[in-house]
Structure formats: C-alpha cells, structure tokens
Amino acid sequence: MNKRILKLALPSIISNITVPLLGLVDVTITGHMGESRYMAAIAVGSMLFNITYWMFSFLRFGTGGMTAQLYGAGGEVGHTLVRSSATALTVAATILLLQVPLFRLAMWFIAPEPDIISTIHTYYNICVWGTVPSLLLYVFTGWFVGMQNTRLPMLISITQNIVNICLSCFFVYALGMKIEGVALGTLIAQWSGALIACVIIATKYRDVLRRLDFLHCIRHKVPLQGAGNVNITIFIRTLFLIAVNLYFIEAGAKGGSVILAVNSVLMQMFILYTYVMDGFAFAAEALCGRYHGAADKQNFSAALRGVWLWSAMLTLAYTLLYAVGGEAFLRLLTDDAAVRSAAIDYLPWAIAIPVCGVAAFVWDGVFVGITKTMGMLWGTMGGAIAFFLIYFLLYPTLHNHSLWLAFNAYLLFRGIVQSVIYIREDYSVDAQTSKD
C-alpha cells in the first residue's frame, strides 16, 4: 500500500513545486521591463484569474472523487469526464460572455492605482481566453487522479510551464513585446496543456471513449448516491477558503508594510508544507475513492492508515525543520533587517502550522474521494467562523499575533470537525455498504 500511496503522491508533489516557478519567471520578466506598473499589473491580473479559477475548483475535486469511485466499482468512468467537461465549458462560456462587466467589477473591488488599470486590462483581455483550457484542465486533472494516475498531470504541468517560460521570454526579449508578451505566453501554454491532455485521453483511454454514449452522459445522472450535491458543496466551501485567505492578506496590510512583508514571508512556510500535503491528499482521494467504490474494506482501511502515517511523519519532519532552521529560512528569503527581526516574533505561529493543519489535509482528500463533501463544507465553515471570531475578539490586544492565532485555529478546527463527522457518520466501507 505504501508503494501505491507514494506512486500517487510524489508526482502530485512535483507538479505543485512547478507552480511557483511559473509565477517567479513572470515576475522576473516584468521586473526587467523598466517600469513597476508591469509588475503591478501581473500581480493584480494573476490574482484575479487565480481567484476566479479557484472558485470553480469543484471541477477538479468533484470529478476526481466520482471517477475514483466508478473506477473502483468497475463503472463507466467516462461519464464523469463528459459531464464535468460540459460543465467546465458552460462556466467558461459564461465568463467569456461577461468578461467586460466582470473586469469592471474587479477593478472597482481591488481599486488599483489608475495609471496601471490600462496595463491590467491588456493582460486581462488576452488571458481571459485561457479560461476554457484552464477549467478543462481542472476536469482532466481530477479525472486522471480518479483513474489512479497522477503522473500524467505532472507531465502536463511541467510541459505547460516550459512552454510558458520559453514563449514569454521569446515574445518579450526577441520580439520586444511588453505585458502582452507575458500574457500570450501564458495563454498559449494553457491551450497547450489542455490539448496535450486531450491527446492523452484519446490515445491512452480510447477504450473508455468507445464505450461512451455522449448524449446519455449529459442527460442522465452519474450513478453515485449524492453525486449531484458534490459540486455545490465544494463551491460553497471554496468561498469560505477564499474569504479567509483574502482577509488574511487584508488584515496584515493594516499593520503596515513591515507586518505585511512579515506575513508574506512566513506564509511561505505554510505554502511549502501544502506542496507535500496536497500530494498525500490526492493519494487519499484516489485510493479511498477507489476502494470505497469497490466496497473493499481491507484496502480502504490500509490506504487510510498509510496516508495518515505518511502525513504524521512529514508533519513531524516539517515541524522540526522549521523549529531548528526557521531563522535561517528567514535570512534566505529576505535581507531586510527590520522584516527579519519582526518575523522572529511570529515564527512560533508558523512552526505550529503543520501540526494544526495535518488533519484538514488528510480528511479533505478522504472526503473528496468518498464524495462526502458536506463534511468538508462543515469543517471549512466552522474553521472560517473560528478564524474571524478569534481575530476580531483578540486583535485589540494581540494585534498581528491574533491573526496568526486565528489562522492556526482555522486549520485545527477544520481537522477536528471533519474527524468528528467521519467518526459520527461512520463512513467506513461496511457502514456505507449496509446503508446502500
């Protein structure tokens, strides 16, 4: 079982690590264009699209969980691919039709400096056409994970990043383009990734496609109990995630530029942890979904124990690493003495993140796999409520410390709520089989 877990987790971890490289290259290219407005436009534009795509992450998670169960049960796994792709195309078409009012709304909400709005608009007008491939890639990635294959998403992600980096550099440095060159590189890379995924599905999974009745897939429900509620619960849960993460940034900004920089630097310790834990969450999703669909209690329990064991070991390793090397890590990230000095005061909160967050990551993967996403929603909703209550109650006395305490409580509360729900609802294979 450990080999199966690592076979699924390691490619996902590698895929996660490639993501920040892409943003780093974009920032580096725009940072050498001679005007700060290009960097600002990239920052605002990227945030706008990241939030938009994040809102529709149910396309990734819902597809993965339902596919994994159908795979384990020996069902028609192509059903989820067709239905989820149709949903992705519908959402993308809606965004494209409403792109002008959506941009105006975003500019009103974000309120950037007036002199960079036109530059943001240039970036937006090009990258918005990447909505179709980006949402389809959510579906394809989820489907591959459900099919017990995380290696393909890794290869697609790496290829996509290489295309983006090469084309962005070519457009900017060889052709003399500015922000539009970076945007075009991103757009072509997004379409390249989606097309590569389509080719892989058409060749590697041709037998799945041959068995499909496309009209039947769209008109009739996926044969999984409660599958109709999966996407909406994940969507609502995502809104709570976005609310917490955006407010964390906004609240940090209240403390001034030094505190904002401190929070940004320390948050990198959380992000590094998520790269690895997301990989094991994906493994839990694929394996627990597969064995839940197959009503295989022995392998389901083994997969759950294995994911928990690996997660516990990695959490211990991260905690020790941050406790011993936290200050050295701060020196690596910034040479600003004021930021480093202030960050040391908040370092214990960052060290506590792995312990507070481990259960949330594991249960997210399990709940997605067995498509019991209401447990995820209740956990995230409860964690978000705890976050805002703790922050607003303690901010007058603890200031930025209250923000970090609230964030750790948010992670911890998510895991506790989901643990209670899993035990109370008895989501074991035997229990679900008897209920069905």
Core attributes:
18 helices, 436 residues
Structure, briefly:
This protein has 436 residues and is an all-alpha fold. Helix content is 87%, strand content 0%. It is globular.
Report on this structure.
The chain is mainly alpha-helical. Helices cover 87% and strands 0% of the residues. It is built from 18 helices and no strands. The protein is globular and about 55 Å long. About 1% of the residues have low confidence.
Average predicted local confidence, pLDDT: 85
Helix/strand order, N-terminal first: HHHHHHHHHHHHHHHHHH
Strand runs, count = 0
Count of DSSP helices? 18
Instruction: Report helical residue fraction.
Output: over 70%
| Overall form | globular
- Which class do the helix and strand fractions yield? mainly alpha
Percentage beta strand: under 5%
Radius of gyration: 22 Å
Cα-to-Cα separation, first versus last residue: 27 Å
